[in-house]
Structure formats: structure tokens, C-alpha cells
Amino acid sequence: MEVSHFSSIGFEIDFQNPAWMSTLTREYLPKCTASALSPRDMVCLVKDPSGSELRLALRKGTKNAAELVTLNPGFDGESRVEVDIAADVSDPDWKPFEVAMTARFRGEETPLVFDLADPAEAASLVPGAKVTLEIAAFSYAPSLFANEAAYIKSQDGSQLYYAADFFIPSGMYKASVGGLIPEGSKLPKAYADFAGTVLKAEFRTNAAGGGKFWWTLVRTYGGSTLDVVIDPTTIPGAPEVGSILSGRFWLSARLAR
């Protein structure tokens, strides 16, 4: 099964199988809790004790039957990031199911962009709001280093060295300069390149999804912490306290509780 953001939290969804959609609705719709976004639109949440979440986006269609529009993974963890909200930068074609926001780290000029795990929280994230977020980071190909010394040594011969807590909002740059915004588009993507130190690590089982994954709490830029979730097939060993994780990550956020 291919690596995906879903496999990073233990949801084993075989997108190569032509019947994946019917299989998914059969397995997960009976387990989910629905909440309305509008008279026509709702999300149905599958929440596992491991912290893994799956939201099915449903829209009332013909004869009032619910039709699957999209689905998104999420994770409920321990991270804390203090930010000042800047703007809603969502693609209007995907609202109200997918909401993207820009913000700045509190007291800093460094920006970031993230998708909301729960689109219903958008009403609380108005420009200028000062909030504390939980942010989960998903990667297709994270890099793992035993410690900071190994991380620094891996950059030998590079013209530019990256700190062990660097953070670059790569989703806010054009693809032509190494970012993720396609040419012709002005909408940023909820991605960042960063490195951080592992503070906690646990190998978890997603009972609802059938798979296993690594959860790590990682300290990065400015002392902020992120929940980094990892498909175990993408790293050579176990992340340990004090090791360094780095890579390009999709960021999924929620209001901290």
C-alpha cells in the first residue's frame, strides 16, 4: 500500500483499488459522528484513541442522499504553537470542507500556512486573533538523524547549513524557487520545511484504521512543538528522544484544548 497522509496515522486506505470509495464508506460511515457545516454540508468524524482522525466530507445530493465529496486525515496530539492569525487563504472550490489559514508565530515575523483539521473552527480564527494551536505534521519522506551532531554532519559540503530548529514556510513560495505554489496560482499550500528535536516518541496502533504509525512530539522554531506523525515504512528505524527529524511536511491544525 502506498505511503499517504492517511497511512501516516494508521488509516490503511488502498487508493489503487477501484472499489476504495465503496469500501471506505462501508467501513467508516457506521463509525463516524456527523456535524453540520451548512444545511447541505456536513463532516463525519472517525476518531481513534491513538489520536488519529478521519473526516468524511458529505453533501446532500439528489433525493437528499449524502454524497462523499472528499476526506481528510487529522491528528489530536500534544503540540502547542502560539500564533497571530493573518488571513483565510482557502480555495473557494473546496470550502466549507477545507479551510486554509495564514498566521505568524507569536512575536515573530515568520509566517506559516496550515489547513484546519476541523473546518468548523474557522469562525474562531479571524484575522488578528491570538490563538494557541495544535499542529500535526505529515510527511511522505521524513529524514531521521540520531542526534544534532549527525544532522549537522549530513550537511557537509553544502553551501548553506540549516539549523536543527529551522522552519521555512515552503508552501508560501512558488514552485520555480523550490516552493509548492504552482505557476499561475496565488494560493499558498499548507506545507513547511523544518527540523526539530524529538521530545517524545511512541509507536501506536490505529484500531479504527487497522494500521500502525509513529507519533513524535518535536520541538522546532522558537520552541514551538509539533506532533509529527510517520508511516513506519518511511524511516529506517525508531525515532528516539534527542534525535532530529526534518523534511517537508503538510500542516494540519486545530485550536488547542
TL;DR of this structure?
The chain is mainly beta and 257 residues long. It has helices at 20-28, 148-153; strands at 33-36, 41-47, 52-60, 66-75, 81-88, 100-105, 111-116, 130-138, 143-145, 167-168, 191-205, 212-219, 225-230, 244-255.
What do these coordinates show?
With 257 residues, the chain is mainly beta. It has a domain at 7-75. The protein has two helices and 14 strands, in the order αβββββββββαβββββ. The chain has helices at 20-28, 148-153; strands spanning 33-36, 41-47, 52-60, 66-75, 81-88, 100-105, 111-116, 130-138, 143-145, 167-168, 191-205, 212-219, 225-230, 244-255. The strands form two sheets. Strands 5, 6, 7, 8, 9, 10, 11, 12, 13 and 14 form a ten-stranded mixed β-sheet that branches. Strand 2 and strand 3 (52-60) form a beta hairpin. The longest helix has 9 residues, at 20-28. The model has no long low-confidence stretch (mean pLDDT 94).
Count of separate DSSP helical elements = 2
End-to-end CA span: 34 Å
H and E order: HEEEEEEEEEHEEEEE
Give the helix/strand class.
mainly beta
> Nearest-angstrom radius of gyration?
18 Å
Measured by DSSP, the beta-strand proportion falls in 35-45%
Morphology: globular
Number of E strands:
14
Query: Low-confidence stretches at least 5 residues in length (pLDDT < 50)?
Result: none
Mean pLDDT: 94
**For the report, how would you describe the main beta sheet?**
10 strands, mixed
What's the helical proportion of residues? under 10%
